[in-house]
From TrEMBL:
Lineage, opening ranks: Bacteria, Bacillati, Bacillota, Bacilli, Lactobacillales
Protein name: IS110 family transposase
Annotated Transposase IS116/IS110/IS902 C-terminal domain residues: 162-239
Transposase IS110-like N-terminal domain: residues covered: 3-62
Any Gene Ontology biological process: DNA transposition
GO molecular function terms attached to this record: DNA binding; transposase activity
Length: 292
């Protein structure tokens, strides 16, 4: 009834449910995994912030009539960064100035690069460019510190990292993120289906008039879902293993986006069994060692 809901009544109800063991346990990883999770999530947000600043660089160049991306695909690589510094410093752009600062095949495109850089950059554009470049440098330094700390924590999980890297589409960075989100102890999940549901990758079902229909997946763990979907796209490029073939099959049937989610679901279940088997093997080894 309206007006009868209070915190005290809620507390009594929760206490009663707890006494009857009707409140399901939440997944709480150990301290090291929690620290790793904090670091990987913070790194993700820093990378996103850096990407926003890179997009601002593109906007400034566009406003200043500079078409640098026509000839330099990655303007934040070594050659591209040198060109951005020239623009920010207000240098008179000439072929003699540009040639020593670009590398590889870009040396053949020096005249075109010079033409592309001779826009109408004003003092305002140069100021903006300078400030954004300094911000990007700050983000780069901070991200490097986070990655160094993540590597230190991952050293005690090298066996698990190697296990995850054996999956097509998973690199060391993504392996670290996956371990940070699900931990290494798969016994905390009832089975692979519960893990997939917790991650938000389990396909839902609804029943109406005696018929079962597929429904949307739940929200779950956005960090884990994102990295597994990225790994699915990478796995799709591989001709080896079952994940790439599964992705291509689902893409023909249901389109690329649903194929990525379905492959991520399949990959997570395989990861569950791989970590579970590894954990059990480790327990047997420890038990045998202690007996000796």
């Amino acid at each position: 009834m309206p007006g009868h809901k209070t915190d005290k009544k809620d507390a009594r109800w929760i206490a009663k449910l707890l006494r009857l063991d009707l409140i399901p346990a939440s997944f709480v990883p150990d301290e090291t995994i929690q620290d790793l999770r904090d670091l990987t999530r913070a790194r993700k947000h820093l990378i996103e912030s850096r990407n926003k600043q890179k997009n601002r660089i593109h906007q400034v160049l566009q406003c200043g009539g500079v078409k640098l991306t026509t000839y330099i695909e990655d303007i934040f690589g070594k050659s591209g960064r040198n060109m951005l510094e020239l623009l920010a410093n207000g240098e008179v752009i000439t072929s003699e100035l540009v040639k020593p600062l670009v590398y590889t095949t870009l040396k053949k495109k020096v005249p075109q690069i010079v033409d592309a850089m001779n826009g109408f950059m004003r003092a305002h554009h140069r100021f903006m460019l300078n400030e954004i470049l300094r911000l990007i440098d700050t983000f780069d330094a901070s991200i490097a510190e986070y990655e160094a700390r993540i590597d230190i924590l991952l050293q005690q999980y090298e066996a698990e990292v190697s296990l995850l890297i054996s999956f097509k589409g998973i690199q060391r960075e993504s392996a670290g993120i996956i371990l940070a989100e699900i931990g290494t102890d798969m016994s905390v999940f009832e089975d692979e289906k519960h893990l997939a549901s917790w991650a938000g990758l389990c396909p839902g079902n609804r029943e109406s008039a005696g018929k079962r229909h597929n429904s949307k997946i739940n929200h779950g763990n956005a960090y884990l879902k994102r990295i597994l979907c990225q790994a699915s796209w990478a796995a799709a490029k591989s001709k080896e293993g079952d994940l790439g073939a599964f992705f291509r099959l689902k893409r023909r049937q249901r389109g690329p986006k649903k194929a990525a989610v379905a492959t991520a679901h399949r990959m997570l279940k395989q990861i569950y069994f791989a970590l579970l088997t590894h954990q059990e093997s480790k327990k047997h080894t420890l038990a045998a060692t202690s007996v000796r």
